[in-house]
Amino acid sequence: MSGETEHPALEELSARLLEEERAYAEVLAAVDALSGFELPAEAAPELREQLARLNSLWKAPEPPKSGGLGGALRRRAWDALAPALEQQTAFNAALVQLLNARLEQADRLHARLRELASALVRYAQRVQPLVDARARVGTALATTRSELVLDSFGRQLESHARRLDGLAALRERLERLAAEVEALRSSR
């Protein structure tokens, strides 16, 4: 459209379109940047090592097996502490199981969130081409409809032109007949 000026309404629509396209590109870039987040398991791989260490440390130590007077004293002390150690061992086991389950669920959740963010980016990337394709189809349909209307008008013009040509030929014939009739009257 070099040298041609756009209609003011079209200029306003074009400016709005550019504004919306910039805003869409900004949102798409922001969503794309957010979708590439690092999962906690990736950001802190030492968590797995700590969990493995915790899984091996939760058990209570074995009771002493030594003999003699010192061994008897150690066994008595062990027997006195055994209920507290058993309770602590049960607590440790429950806590380790809870941490293992929680970490597994968190890993699944984080992986799912990453998939969701990736799907959202793919969706957002498809919105604009879809809208563009619909607009092109709409424009093509409007053009086709316009061409059909123009073709119909063209056929009507041709039909009217043929009628006009027929009327002009009829007029010429009537004028000739009128001239002949006039000539016959004057010859009498």
Topology (SSEs and partners):
Elements: H1 8-35, H2 40-43, H3 46-57, H4 68-187
Helix pairs in contact: 1-4
What does this structure look like?
With 188 residues, the chain is an all-alpha fold. The chain has one domain. It is 87% helix and 0% strand. The protein has helices at residues 8-35, 40-43, 46-57, 68-187. The mean pLDDT is 84.
Q: How would you characterize the largest beta sheet? A: none
Radius of gyration: 46 Å
Beta-strand percent range: under 5%
| Helix/strand class | mainly alpha
Catalogue the unreliable spans. none
> What is the CA-CA span between the terminal residues?
73 Å
What is the count of helical runs?
4
- How are helices and strands ordered from N to C? HHHH
Number of domain modules? 1
Tally of strands: 0
What is the mean pLDDT? 84
Task: Choose one word for the global shape.
Answer: rod-shaped
Helix fraction, binned, reads over 70%
Q: Gist?
A:
The protein has 188 residues and is an all-alpha fold. The protein has helices at 8-35, 40-43, 46-57, 68-187.
Overview features:
single chain, 188 residues, mainly alpha, 87% helix
